[in-house]
Amino acid sequence: MVHIGNDWDALLQEEFQQPYYLKLRAFLAQEYRTHIIYPDMYDIFNALKYTAYQDVKVVILGQDPYHGPGQAHGLCFSVQKGVTPPPSLMNIFAELQADVGCHIPSHGELSGWAKQGVLLLNTVLTVRKGAANSHQGKGWEQLSDRIIALLDQKKEALVFLLWGRNAKAKMSLLHNPNHLVLTSSHPSPYSVDYGFKGCAHFSKTNAYLQEHGIEPIDWQL
Q: For 157-214, how does the pLDDT look when each residue is reduced to its tens digit (9 = 90+)?
């Protein structure tokens, strides 16, 4: 079964035994045998491995992994070093520069954020090569909804960054008044000008954390 290596194991133990997850696991075993699937099977749960439940300060929700070679490694919007950052990620970096003055980094690997408490969670955790959304509706959404609901139960202040229609649909899972929910359009080139550009979510996130006595995120990679 799944071994994450931190407090997520106990929190999700029952979830990983649910019939929907066992069905999903069987589907994935077949997919990895017969197709090229991203990310590598050992990287599927990297978001949870990098950021323990007790350490989460900020949640960024993505949709499903990048579907090009060498890109996805289990953290939403992130690509492995040596891989050209996709347009959505470059738009995130541009907003960071405009908002908090970060220099545009030479890579698109976001584990530095994850290690500070930014949970970089895709709502669907796997995808076939070259086929966006190919693993939608297979059970991942039920698992990610449970993860979001567990995070909503945290007493400590959290910030949820919901970019785009799919991410904003998760607002129905968030009820805790201790948390800040910020929404905008998706940072993709098709929608960046409809709310993401100029959203100042990074400075707003740090201001909220500091208001609640929580160490802010150093967004510079």
A: 999 999 999 999 999 999 999 999 999 999 999 999 999 999 999 999 999 999 999 9
Query: Which among 168, 206, 205 has a CA at the least distance from the CA of 186?
Result: 168
The phi and psi torsions of 29 (rounded to 5 degrees) equal -60, -40
Catalytic positions, written as ranges: 64
In contact, 163 and 196? CB cutoff 8 Å:
yes
Largest CA-CA distance found in the chain, in angstroms, rounded: 50
Among 14, 32, 11, 33, residue whose Cα is nearest residue 22? 14
The whole-angstrom separation of Cα 202 and Cα 108 is 17
Nearest to 60 by CA among 75, 50, 45: 75
Between β-strands 127-128 and 37-38, what pairing exists: parallel, antiparallel or unpaired? antiparallel
